[in-house]
Design goal:
single chain, 267 residues, alpha/beta, Rossmann fold, globular
Length: 267
């Protein structure tokens, strides 16, 4: 399917995967709406894609606000006349340990990762229904298949169920709904980790899902076998990730970053 001139909203456009997705869509000749918080990252991305001129619309958006989501959809339709693609890429994380997270962090993860995706889908579905076409791509995580990341896993499990439900709801209306589940990729979310794949691997999967919607895609492909194994053997997964040494290693990067931030703020 040719994607040239199709209109895509990228929610979370200024993040690592979001920016890669914006670039991938523009390379296909699409018209792209950049939705992200109004900050330095969005400003930098806006400057980087300015060469594409009127193919780019920037709409600073906080997806924890339904009013701002509705304004995003209205601005997209006003500028381009339609919405062909919604890419829900926005995501935030906190410590893998639920006990380490603050109540505010727990609420923020659910507000962005689950409620944000639900509300953006809810906002664009009427437009796609009127067109009798569209593609929705939600970016989850393998943490939504294997529960090892506290409230982050909880939000991604919820997103997986929501995506399945909405896909079935819209199946007869020519609106595809796909879940992309990345493993660890090279973004600021994965602090302290090295030699990770580029976010471009996820962006390419998103483009393929727009062309040919499917139920779910795990990327990189090297995660397929271990994900299936841990799903089939819950007892083994409990044994491995219930080990105190594994838990310490899993939580070390975030705990070290938090300690450094606290030390800097007290200096």
């Amino acid at each position: 399917m040719l994607l040239r001139d199709q209109v895509a909203i990228v929610v979370g456009a200024s993040g690592g995967i979001g920016a890669a997705t914006v670039r991938a869509f523009l390379a296909e000749g699409m018209r792209v709406v950049l939705a992200a918080p109004d900050d330095a990252l969005l400003a930098a991305l806006t400057a980087a894609v300015a060469v594409h001129g009127e193919r780019v619309l920037v709409v600073p958006t906080d997806i924890t606000s339904r009013a701002q989501i509705d304004a995003l959809v209205a601005a997209s339709v006003a500028a381009f006349g339609r919405i062909d693609v919604l890419a829900n890429v926005a995501g935030v994380s906190t410590s893998p340990s639920l006990a380490d997270a603050t109540d505010a962090e727990i609420e923020r993860v659910l507000a962005v990762n689950l409620l944000g995706a639900a509300r953006t889908m809810h906002a664009v579905i009427p437009t796609m229904r009127a067109q009798r076409s569209g593609a929705i791509v939600n970016v989850g995580s393998i943490a939504g298949e294997i529960a090892i990341m506290g409230i982050y896993s909880g939000s991604k499990f919820g997103l997986r169920g929501l995506t399945d439900s909405v896909r079935r709801e819209l199946r007869s209306e020519r609106i595809g709904v796909t879940l992309i589940e990345p493993g660890f990729v090279d973004t600021p979310m994965n602090i302290g980790m090295h030699n990770l794949p580029s976010p471009d691997v996820v962006a390419r999967a998103i483009v393929r899902a727009v062309r040919r919607p499917r139920r779910r895609v795990i990327v990189p492909a090297s995660y397929l076998v271990p994900t299936a194994f841990f799903q089939l053997s819950a007892a083994f997964t409990d044994l491995v990730f219930g080990d105190a040494r594994i838990q310490a290693r899993l939580n070390r990067p975030m705990r070290e970053a938090r300690a450094a931030a606290e030390a800097a703020s007290g200096a």
